Amino acid sequence: xxxxxxxxxxxxGLFTLFLISLIVFFATNVLPGDAARAILGRSATxxxxxxxxxxxxxxxxxVTQYLGWIAGLFHLDMGMSVISRGPVWDIVAPRLFNTLxxxxxxxxxxxxxxxxxxxxxxxxxxxxxxxxxxxFLLGTAGIPEFVIAIVLVLVLxxxxxxxxxxxxxxxxxxxxxxNPQVLVLPVLTLTFAVMPYLGxxxxxxxxxxxxxxYVVIARLKGxxxxxxxxxxxxxxxxxxxxxxxxxxxxxxxxGAVVVEFIxxxxxxxxxxxxxxxxxxxxxxxxxxxxxxxxYIVFNMAADILTIVMTPRLRT
Length: 315
Description:
By secondary structure, the protein is mainly alpha-helical. 75% of the residues lie in helices and 0% in strands.
C-alpha cells in the first residue's frame, strides 16, 4: 500500500510540475516587452533585434521553444541567460545553494522552537506562559515579513545595537558559509514569520488529542503523564503537525523572495527580482520552476510521512 501511494503521489507530482512548467513558460513569453530589444536598447535597429532573437532562439514557435526547454531540463540545461549570455544553471546553482542554506537553517531553528512552544502551551492551557505566548503569536501573525525585517534592522543593525550587518553582502570570492553573520537577520525574520502559524496549530492539535477518549482512558488506567503525552497524545497529534511543517517549509521558500530582496541576500529570491527587472526570461523560468519543485517535494514528503504515521492509511 505504501509503494502504491508513493507511486501515485510521484505521478501526481510530476503531472503538477508539467502543468506548472506550461504555465510558467507561456506566461513569461506573453509578458509585455521584448527581451531582445530590452538588451539592445530602444535605439537598436530591427535587423539587430531580429539577429539577437535568432541567436537566442526566440524567433522559433513557442511550442518548439517549450519542447527544447523541457528536453534541456533533463540534463540541467536551462538555456542561456539573455543578459549575461552564460548558462542559466551557472547563475542559478550557487544561489540555489544559498537559498537552501537559508531554508535549512531557518527550519532547524523555527520548527523545534514552534513544536516546543506549542507543546508547552497545550500541556498548561490558561497559565501565564500560554496566555503570554498566545498574545505574542497573535500579535505577530499578521505582520508581513518586510515589516519584521525592518524592525530587526532598526533594533540590531543601527546605532541602538549595532550587532549585525543590515545587508547580507558577501565579499567577492567568498561564500555565505564563510560569512555566517549575514544569515542571522534573514533567519530571524523568517522564524518570526512562521512561528505564529505553526506554534498555534501544534497547540490546537495537541489539545484536541489530550481531550480525546483514548487519552482519558489512558489516564484512568493510571499511566504516568509523560507516557500519556509521548505515546498517546503527542504521537496522534503529529499528522496535522507534519502537514503544517510541509506548508511552513513551502512558505519559507516563497518568503525567501521578499526577505532576500530586503537584505540583498545572494539567493534565488534576489536573483528572481533582478531577472524580472531585466526581463531575463530563461532565468525567471528556471527559478520559478525550482520553487514549484520545492512546493511539490515538501507536500509529497508530508503525504508519505502521514501514511507512515497512520496505520489506517497503510492498510
